[in-house]
Design a protein that fits this description.
By secondary structure, the protein is mainly alpha-helical. The protein contains 15 helices and 8 strands. Helix content is 62%, strand content 7%.
Length: 422
């Protein structure tokens, strides 16, 4: 009786337990070694993910954009590896079949795809944000380039006004003590001294050629300015210097120098640029390199004025110089090259005069005017007049004077009836 009762109880207990059918394939696929290997890979992947995440946090302090981007990619890569392990396990170890195993697996797949989709959406937003940041950086860099270009143009403009190119300025920066060229009163005064010296230098070959052609120098000097009593016979050279100066400075006050120019300078800076361009150039190279230049036209016009037709014919026995020049040419003779040096110095002085704002103004003194220490300077440093009580008067104007910036550069003159004192 007891045995039968015990058996009945056991049967009732067994009937109360639920029985889950297990597919034979799943039972057969349960490989302990494979499961152990999978678990090891999972733990290794998690460790790598943890390390990558720590590196990502470290990249924020201090903030390093490149390092952040690299570690972020590493974190995403480890997450992908972990997802692949999950898929691998599900494919080889399906879950126990319940009511609807296909629906359960499909739901899991959908959930997995949704998770991946969210991950990709986050990544897309991140990439879009990075693109926007890069676009913003590009715009900022473009603006910086524009600002730098404008600053460069301003610096080049200032360097040109100082008479330096970019390369020259770099050289000057490395070699302190080399002065730059600035537009000021002293620069103009030096240019005027150069022009005065050039007039004197050209008068020498002119007088020598007159001597060689048997000219009467006394008569020639008297024809320029009659009735002048010179303290020394050698002082008659000032009559020829006066003649050269008078012809060379005709039209000086006009910006065009009384020439018809196709492209006249339009600004004060343009005048100074022309001065700088010609300052260190060889005058013959300058007129020959550009046949229709303003400086070339100036040289041709002034040569015709300074060297009279009869004078040239007596010098060379023909008018080849004159004819060649009137046709637009520039002879390569020594005499014409000496003239070009004179023309260059006067042209540079004119470019400088009109670089100032307002322009420097030229003034000339006429014969018989009383000597003024403010507006005149005598070529003869130590002299007296025959009548000590009489003020000296102007005999010849050898070089004009100038007003510039409220200051006066006196005209150089040769006084009448002057006597040299020791």
């Amino acid at each position: 009786m007891q045995n039968s009762g015990v058996k009945d109880n056991q049967l009732r207990d067994n009937s109360n337990q639920k029985v889950h059918p297990q597919p034979m394939e799943e039972v057969n696929n349960q490989n302990p070694e494979a499961i152990e290997t999978l678990i090891s890979r999972i733990f290794s992947n998690i460790s790598s993910l943890k390390t990558a995440y720590i590196q990502l946090q470290a990249a924020h302090t201090p903030y390093d954009p490149e390092k952040i981007q690299a570690t972020d990619k590493l974190v995403v890569s480890e997450l992908k590896n972990l997802s692949e392990l999950k898929h691998f396990y599900r494919e080889h170890n399906p879950r126990p079949v319940c009511v609807s195993p296909q629906d359960s697996r499909l739901a899991a797949e959908i959930h997995e795809q949704q998770s991946l989709l969210k991950t990709y959406e986050v990544m897309v937003k991140k990439f879009q944000s990075e693109i926007q940041n890069k676009d913003s950086e590009i715009l900022q860099l473009e603006q910086q380039i524009q600002d730098a270009t404008q600053k460069k143009l301003k610096l080049e403009k200032n360097l040109k006004l100082r008479g330096l190119s970019t390369k020259e300025s770099e050289g000057c920066g490395s070699e302190p003590g080399i002065p730059s060229v600035e537009l000021n009163f002293d620069l103009f005064k030096l240019a005027l001294e150069d022009a005065s010296r050039a007039v004197h230098d050209f008068s020498k070959p002119l007088i020598n050629m007159m001597k060689a052609a048997d000219w009467d120098l006394d008569a020639a000097a008297n024809s320029i300015e009659p009735g002048i009593t010179y303290a020394k016979r050698s002082h008659k050279k000032y009559a020829f210097e006066s003649h050269i100066c008078q012809k060379m400075f005709i039209g000086f006050q006009d910006e065009s120098f009384s020439l018809v120019l196709e492209n006249p300078p339009e600004t004060k800076e343009s005048f100074f640029q022309q001065y700088l361009a010609l300052r260190d150039a060889d005058p013959l190279d300058a007129v020959c390199s550009t046949t229709d230049s303003s400086f070339g036209k100036f040289c041709q016009t002034k040569y015709i004025l300074v060297v009279h037709k009869k004078m040239e014919e007596s010098f060379f026995g023909n008018l080849d110089h004159r004819n060649f020049i009137t046709r637009g040419g520039h002879p390569r003779t020594a005499f014409y090259q000496a003239f070009l040096k004179l023309a260059k110095s006067v042209w540079l002085l004119h470019r400088l005069a009109h670089s100032f704002d307002p322009s420097a103004k030229i003034f000339q003194v006429k014969r018989d005017l009383e000597y003024s220490e403010v507006y005149m300077e005598s070529i003869m440093k130590n002299f007296t007049t025959k009548d000590d009580e009489q003020k000296p008067k102007v005999g010849l104007m050898v070089m004009p004077g100038f007003w510039i910036g409220g200051r006066v550069i006196p005209s150089k003159i040769y006084p009448i009836a002057a006597q040299v004192t020791e």
